[in-house]
Amino acid sequence: MIVIGPLEPADRPGWERLFEGYNAFYGRETMPDGFYDRAWAEFRSGARMHALGAKLGGELVGIVHFFAHPSTTSSDLCYLQDLFTATEVRGKGVARQLISAVKAWAGEHGCGRVYWHTKDDNHAARLLYDKVAENRGFIVYTMPI
Amino acid sequence: MIVIGPLEPADRPGWERLFEGYNAFYGRETMPDGFYDRAWAEFRSGARMHALGAKLGGELVGIVHFFAHPSTTSSDLCYLQDLFTATEVRGKGVARQLISAVKAWAGEHGCGRVYWHTKDDNHAARLLYDKVAENRGFIVYTMPI
Amino acid sequence: MIVIGPLEPADRPGWERLFEGYNAFYGRETMPDGFYDRAWAEFRSGARMHALGAKLGGELVGIVHFFAHPSTTSSDLCYLQDLFTATEVRGKGVARQLISAVKAWAGEHGCGRVYWHTKDDNHAARLLYDKVAENRGFIVYTMPI
Amino acid sequence: MIVIGPLEPADRPGWERLFEGYNAFYGRETMPDGFYDRAWAEFRSGARMHALGAKLGGELVGIVHFFAHPSTTSSDLCYLQDLFTATEVRGKGVARQLISAVKAWAGEHGCGRVYWHTKDDNHAARLLYDKVAENRGFIVYTMPI
Question: Which domains does chain D have, with CATH numbers?
Fold first, then answer.
């Protein structure tokens, strides 16, 4: 059974392995010194950013990171920034349950919607996303500084 | 000459006309009561959201709304949420200068990048965006609550 | 074992069931009178259009339709118009082998490349297509007459 | 006034200049020996491929290449393969008139529709295409042989 809940101190090593897998998927093989410490501290404090974990048989097999931010045209929005599940549990509904948990959190915190970005050609993920969310035809432009 | 700067109390009517044009473009013809008051108050306080205006011959012809938010994988990011220019000044560089001003603000506030969303088929806007920013192939999924 | 080969008269009923499945996938529930007879006659004559079938345990489980046409900028091209596999054999490599067989045919007939169209959001199919072919960023515009 | 009509022998140099511009746009700077002779001969014979030109003040300023091919699921289709207009006449309606002329030809020759491919990020062209044709969400996969 999949159990979704907050990340506890004992989840630190499993969380880092999964977040490393996520970063590797997006081609970020080596992160700056202190990267994982900083993110973990943010999630533990819960002041700005939030995280949830999914456990299967007591083992952490999925993580999701998210936060609320203001919007000029609506109530606050919840941005689901990172979602990752262990390769060996794909297809079991872990990602879907993590998304549902974020949606519940967002509803409780007065957000009008949850949204996220994904690569256009991430077809495996989009098979799920097309079932649970809407692609309204928006794309992302990025300007590095 | 195009002049970019903060919105002043006297800009309130011109700003609302432009923001109405923006909302109409995205099919939002009627906004909830108090919508424009709320957004204007947010920009004037500057605590969470920010706005800049572009003037041509002393008249407000373009607006941009933006704010910084945290990121799990980088320093803060600057999200440029709304950008609109008066129809009659299109092609004069107003949008480009507004984007540049947001980039400058973001740099001064420690943001790693500026990003925004646009409709895939907004070809007129994308002619500009492809010149000043990168489309890295990300799309947006939205889950209403 | 998957066996790819020409369609024989005995394959007529199985072929029609698969082609119906293909048409239903694209929202064409009812085809004009004589539709299947006309297409079958075309494939049997082989003058303009061609078809191959995939059999698994002697049963027809996949079909592909294709033809060569001229090009202003290259040697002839092979257009793979329709590809369909029975739902119950998905993931077994049937589609991949049908595409390979069309590629072999195209090479023997002097074509410079094989190409096809697919819906942008057909993620299940694109998981395969991204492995065997290139998406060079071209989209299709259609003008009904 | 824009005049659309068949290419005449005297149009050979102007046509080649435009077709070179088209090929350069798609990154094909040098074409194989005999490339332009072969294509011109095809258009002059009219057996398989067809071309039309647009003249403005007697000068050739636009070209279009097209042909009909069979279809498994409909009457013949007309593929508009190449369309190019001189840079200095952009925005005058030359491309739109060439497309209309191909549509008329296709209707007279029993084609059910005209279609073409374009690059996803060719926003200047798509401003026109979105007005005259439909993007039904199909993309192109290519497999070189």
Answer: 2-132 (3.40.630.30)
